[in-house]
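Section 3.1 - Work completed
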Amino acid sequence: MADGLRWGWLTAAAAGALVALTGGSLLSLGSAPAQAQDGGAITLRSDIQEANAATGIITARGNVQIDYPSRSIQATSAQADYFSNEQRIVLSGNVVVTQQGNTLMAEVVTYLIEEDRFVATPRPNDQVEAVYILPESEPSSVQGEAPGNSRPPAPRPPTVLDVSPIEPETQPLAP
């Protein structure tokens, strides 16, 4: 974040540590999450958390859980590193991210907060798995009709292929 990091030292070594990340700031244990500049807080829960004010990096290890309600994101992993200056979170170790019913599973997932973009990489010799919920498509309406009065399109005539043999052209015989 351009205006610098606005939080002090925090090392949460107790099980069930809770920290709310809000636009580059950090609320200590027991504080209510504040609104971030983009309209929401990211809540980070884990067994152990360490924060470095000099680098702006928060590391969470053990049973990591992330909740970002304003973007409908929940995630779990073995470890998470929040880089406040770059506005990115790197989740590693059996990562599962869900957003509005969609699921992403990988070994490492980087979430670029400002771009609202995920980049996932698998374990060696494995693959990333994603399950997307696609909206049901509605039948397209005929142009000029009201959306509620749509009718199915008229059937097209069958395609007919001409498969008759081609007659060889007759060439005049050379003298």
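Second construct:
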Amino acid sequence: MAARISYDEVEIGTELPARSFPVTRADLVRYAGASGDFNPIHWNEKFAKEVGLPDVIAHGMFTMAEAGRVVTDWVGDPGAVAEYGVRFTRPVVVPDDDTGAVIEVTAKVAAKDDEHRTVRVDLVVKSEGKKVLGMSRAVVRLA
């Protein structure tokens, strides 16, 4: 699979399509099974509150992965992502209702490197209007 975006057609300031990702408790249970992370803060409301959290929270890596989908969907080839990193700044609280939570992601090209034909994409990741990931950046290699 090759990146569907060409280096020459991307400019600094190019905005990637914004996305919203719903998160339910069922999603957290499925992620726990896939990742092996069965920490009770991700599924047991009583335990989460006993350790000082407002409620069950999404796995940090789940949140990071959902945000990263904005970049991989845009470029068309997950293998084009050379680097991806974030800081976990605030948890995504997932209530036990029919709605759950929503992770909202916007992103734009912040820098270009002509020598390596890469672009740096900066992401803004929020839930309930508050930033949940900081320093969220991906470096994407383009042809």
